[in-house]
Amino acid sequence: MIAVNIVCVGKLKEGYWRDAIAEYSKRLGAYCKLKIVELNESRLSDNPSEKEILQALEAEGRMMMPYAETKGAYNIAMCIEGTQLSSEDLAKRIASASVSGDSTVNFFIGSSFGLCDGIKIKANLKLSISKMTLPHQLARVVTLEQIYRAFAINAGSKYHK
Q: Residue-wise over 47-79: b if at least 16 C-beta within 10 A, else e?
């Protein structure tokens, strides 16, 4: 069974986001070994400078890097400049990673300031959920739902209909 890691910055504060994550995590248990890794968000001033933001992104990137450098991992960086895919195309990418011998698929979700360049460079795919701006917590739920949908598509489930 393939492993899927959601490597993200920050914790979900509201119960309804945690409930949604718990539901999709439970559903994904039939398809993969899911692990959600919540890394500490860098503390920034109320009006951070570009330098402060870059330093925070680099610090967060250092915490993510062990996952990005895992042998046999297919890395997906969730970033605004990434490619937008249909659910079917994401399903094909996940299936292809598994068939090509990758034992893990990592999804990297940064803070509200994004991901550091080092993580993006390690990515096999840069993926964007939407051109619209979404709350960070909602983006995490949407990503998890789309991962579940991808596995359901690959399994021929009626969920995608």
A: eeeeeebeebbebbbeebeebbebeebbbbbbb
Q: What whole-number distance in Å separates Cα of residue 25 and Cα of residue 107?
A: 14
- Cβ–Cβ under 8 Å, residues 118 and 69: no
Indicate if the pLDDT at residue 5 is higher than 90.
yes
C-alpha–C-alpha distance, residues 113 and 77, integer Å: 14
pTM passes above 0.85: yes
Helix (H) or strand (E) holding 149: helix 136-155
CATH number at residue 45: 3.40.1280.10
Residue at token pair 């492993």: 3
What is the per-residue pLDDT across 46-95, written as a single tens digit (0 to 9) for each? 899 999 999 999 999 999 999 999 999 999 999 999 999 999 999 999 99
Read off the tokens for 33.
Answer: 């070994």
Q: How far apart are CA 53 and CA 34, in angstroms?
A: 30
Tally the domains of the chain: 1
